Amino acid sequence: MANHKSAEKRNRQTMVKNESNKYYAKTMRNALKDFRATTSKKEAEELLPRMNSMLDRLARRHIIHTSKAANLKSSIEKHVSTLK
User: Going from the N-terminus, what domains does the chain have, and what CATH number goes with each?
Assistant: First the structure.
């Protein structure tokens, strides 16, 4: 429990930020799941730039770690290369 006015404000800001970060992280997970379910190489290649952009944006906003973004980008590139 916060004892100072500034600490109460910080708690409010943290809660808002946590909700926002949770939303973006969940959206990313759903997008990755949908992308990995893609069986068409053409469709996957069209989605790939959007996925890379999304991962870069999340890493830049510190919602996910930059290394995690790089690892995910690598894995979806591999997924596209295995499709026929």
Answer: 5-82 (1.20.58.110)
Spatial neighbors of 38 by CB under 8 A, at least 6 apart, are 44, 47, 83
pLDDT at 41: 95
Supply the Cα-derived Rg of the chain in whole angstroms: 17
pLDDT digits (tens, 9 = 90+) for 27-51: 999 999 999 999 999 999 999 999 9
Specify the residue for token string 């990995």: 36
- Kindly state the tokens that stand for 58: 């999340």
H helices of 1-84, in order, are 5-36, 41-60, 66-82
- Are 25 and 64 contacting, i.e. CB atoms less than 8 angstroms apart? yes
Structure tokens at 3: 């004892």
Q: Is residue 41 within 8 Å of residue 1, measured between CB atoms?
A: no
How far is Cα of residue 65 from the mean position of the Cα atoms in its chain? 10
